[in-house]
Design a protein that fits this description.
104 residues, Translation Initiation Factor IF3, four-stranded mixed β-sheet, 2 helices, 37% helix, elongated
Length: 104
């Protein structure tokens, strides 16, 4: 599966547009990680606990989006975007979405 943030794939022709594909995950913060993050916030530096959590969330969202595209018969996804939203205190959704296409 080819995935790109652009509307086209160089050297490939989009022969069919299948529609919107998406994948999401909702993650909650962990109390233990919050304590470490709070300390890092005081002394400065990267909050690696949250960096790792967001990276995992992005990968899971992409995997779910690809699965959705494969079910539709796509062999590529163009115009990939990410969005986030707060669900409740300490929990957020990460959504990956794009357009499923068939390319040659």
């Amino acid at each position: 599966m080819i995935i790109t943030t652009s509307d086209e794939i160089p050297g490939k022709k989009i022969v069919k547009t299948l529609g919107l594909v998406k994948g999401n995950t909702i993650r909650a913060r962990h109390v233990g990680k919050d304590i470490i993050a709070g300390f890092r916030n005081i002394v400065g530096g990267e909050i690696i606990e949250y960096t790792k959590m967001l990276a995992e969330s992005r990968e899971q969202s992409i995997d779910r989006m690809v699965e959705n595209g494969e079910k539709m018969g796509a062999n590529a996804i163009v115009a990939l975007r990410f969005t986030t939203s707060s669900i409740m205190g300490g929990a957020a959704e990460l959504l990956a979405y794009g357009t499923a296409v068939v390319i040659e």
